[in-house]
Write a structure and sequence with these properties.
Layout lengths: L2 H4 L13 E12 L2 E12 L3 E5 L6 H8 L7 E6 L2 E2 L7 H5 L2 E4 L11 H11 L5 H14 L15 H14 L4 E5 L10 H13 L3 E5 L3 H7 L2 E6 L2 E6 L1 H4 L6 H11 L8 H20 L1
Parallel strand pairs: 3-8, 3-9, 6-7, 7-8
Antiparallel strand pairs: 1-2, 1-4, 4-5, 9-10
Length: 289
């Protein structure tokens, strides 16, 4: 019997509201003895941009990967458009077509051109004709500013251009929502701006987006809601002006101080807060049990 079916927690019913595109209930994820997610509850609404921030190892990327079942949750439920993707009988491949996913690494096929990277899933998964697939790919490459680079191979593109091809590839599947896992972390600083500009345009166009990022300026300017995670729990969430501009939690303040003004943080201050946060999270988790 899998860990998903061993839980004693009652199964939740989704809201049924079409506006609630992602719903997460009681999500836990462990890798062996290490519990990375410790009971996440989260709803992302249609057209909302949610940026997830926090230190490395806080569970941000694992949360995103559990949403589209690239990681199997240990416990809890995830609903996509009110359909449970964590149900053992779910058609995961169909539900994944609703979610465009962009990773830290671009994961392009090196032997295919930019256009071919965008058309391969259209023809093989969605069974589009070659002509339709090529038209859709060209439209989305143009949308990310690469309309003239369709015949280029990844090796002939910069890192930022490759990431924009990856975004165009995801958009070509006509997803309901986009998931971004630190999409600029592997880029040279001078190449980050074009990728963030494309993401900003998507947000302005009403795309539902869940973004794991270290780009605080982007989160502050574009997000409708910012979630700060640490130790596998959501420590604080709210509008960016509150969470980034005036955080309530001391752990959030120390994290942002180190990120935004790293030369003026006392050595060890963040380490102590990190240890205290993890201790508090463990106590909270045991109390819930």
């Amino acid at each position: 019997m899998s860990a998903m079916t061993e839980t004693t927690q009652p199964r939740r019913v989704p809201t049924g509201d079409r506006e609630d595109e992602i719903q997460v209930y009681g999500l836990h994820k462990s890798f062996g003895e290490l519990e990375v997610l410790k009971g996440i509850d989260l709803t992302v609404h249609r057209g909302e941009v949610v940026c997830v921030i926090g230190p490395s190892g806080s569970g941000k990327s694992t949360l995103l990967r559990c949403v589209n079942m690239l990681e199997q949750p240990t416990q809890g439920q995830v609903f996509i458009m009110n359909e449970e993707i964590t149900d053992p009988d779910a058609d995961i491949d169909r539900l994944r077509t609703m979610m465009g996913m962009v990773f830290q690494q671009f994961n392009l096929f090196p032997h295919l051109t930019a256009t071919e990277n965008c058309t391969i899933a259209l023809t093989r998964v969605l069974k589009k004709s070659s002509a339709d697939a090529r038209r859709i790919a060209q439209e989305n490459l143009a949308k990310v500013g690469l309309g003239d680079r369709g015949d280029s191979y990844p090796a002939k593109l910069s890192g930022g251009q490759q990431q924009r091809v990856a975004i165009a590839r995801a958009l070509s599947m006509d997803p309901e929502m986009m998931l971004f896992d630190e999409p600029t972390s592997a880029l040279d600083p001078e190449l980050v701006g074009d990728v963030l500009s494309v993401m900003r345009d998507l947000a302005n166009g009403g795309m539902t987006m869940m973004v794991v990022t270290h780009e605080m300026a982007f989160a502050r300017d574009v997000a409708d809601r910012v979630i700060f995670m640490d130790g596998g729990v959501i420590v604080e969430e709210g509008p960016p002006d509150e969470v980034i501009g005036n955080p309530k939690e001391e752990r959030t303040r120390l994290f942002l101080k180190r990120v935004l003004d790293p030369t003026h943080v006392n050595a060890g201050a963040e380490d102590a807060a990190y240890a205290e946060r993890h201790k508090a999270a463990r106590v909270h988790h045991h109390q819930e049990d």
